[in-house]
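ok so I'm stuck.
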Amino acid sequence: MLHPKQFKPNDAWIFFRLNEAPIHAGRNGEFNLFALMDAASCFILGTELIPAVAPQLTRSEFNRLLADARRHTEKLPETLFISESQGATLVTRAATSRGVNVVRIAESELFVFIGEAREGFAEYLKEQGDA
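replied:
not stuck anymore, here's the structure
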């Protein structure tokens, strides 16, 4: 079982969807919010909002997400964890082309990292009247 204490900052990042259900944005439609998180600190390094109808992030969307993340750190991680249930073919290709080792893992294994962020975001949406 993975745990944040196993990592040093920037050793590994986690790519995941922050929202559990699509975010309603009125006439603009529904969206999903994807995030990159540092595995050691559980700090969210960046987010990217995409239409819920999109099956996954495009390469350019992931590049923007990486650019946001790199504002907090000087280097890319050695490893990127991605849930096995997450469609992320383009993300995987983009990361591996930069020398990042991609590890697909059961989402239940990632919950120790992402659970609190998801709960906090869901609470935020409730307070905003969007959930």
